[in-house]
Amino acid sequence: MNDQIAGWVQQTLDGDDNAYSSLVETYQTPVYNLCYRMLSDPQEAEDAAQETFWRAYQSLKTYDPQRSFITWLLSIAAHYCIDQQRKRRIPVFSLDILPEENIRDHSPTPESATSKNEEDLVIHELLQTLNHQDRAAIVLYYWYDLSCEEIGQALSLSVSAVKSRLHRARLELAQRWGTNQSTLIYPGSKRYDESPAF
For the segment 125-138, what is each residue's pLDDT rounded down to a tens digit? Predict the structure, then answer.
């Protein structure tokens, strides 16, 4: 944890609410993005992000400064979103699931944009088939670059359990991707045969 974040945490613990506002401003985007990817609804994601920051504020005394603050915060958000999904009993995931750095063509042609949208839709549908914790592990690993250790801390799992979940989820996604490719034809009748990089 860098000195500025550590300072804001300590100032918050000392009763300075402005310091906590600085923490919220710094981390509101990654927290909201995680909630949006998990819940797929902008209003629910906003509510979840607010709840995350409220819960973090209430639990700040239990925060371990040896741990990454953002990992701790994302773990609160992930647990809350998993709970919300379980309550709904409808697994959902944002269509906006691919990180921007994976977009190769910054000025796509209409054909490549259509192919990209169709591929996004397939990946979205595949991710919906995963259970909540597997989905959270995949999102934290591939979209937030958390290590297996950090994911384990975030989801209250052992490192071996995280690795097992990631392995099982990748296999399941790859198998379902292959099944879907037999029916997915892209523009120009060209079949897309590459497997996703899960």
Answer: 777 678 888 888 88
pLDDT in tens, 102-118: 434 444 555 555 555 67
CA dist., res. 5 & res. 44, Å (int): 27
> Which residue type, as a one-letter code, is found at position 128?
Q
SS3 95: coil
Question: Measuring CA to CA, which residue among 30, 19, 43 is closest to residue 77?
Answer: 30
Whether this prediction's pTM lies above 0.90 is answered by no
Q: Look at residues 100, 43, 54 and name the one whose alpha carbon lies nearest to residue 77.
A: 54
Write the burial class of residue 139 (CB in 10 Å: 0-12 exposed, 13-18 middle, 19+ buried): buried
Amino acid in position 105: D
Cα 4 versus chain centre, distance: 25
Containing 190, the helix (H) or strand (E) segment is: strand 190-191
Length reported for the chain = 198
Identify which of 143, 145, 108, 107 has the alpha carbon closest to the alpha carbon of residue 123.
143
Q: Which two tokens stand for residue 8?
A: 């804001």
CATH number of this structure's domain 108-188, picked from the four choices 2.40.160.210, 2.102.10.10, 3.90.650.10, 1.10.10.10: 1.10.10.10
Domain formed by 3-88, architecture = Orthogonal Bundle (1.10)
Instruction: State CA 86 to chain mean position distance.
Output: 16
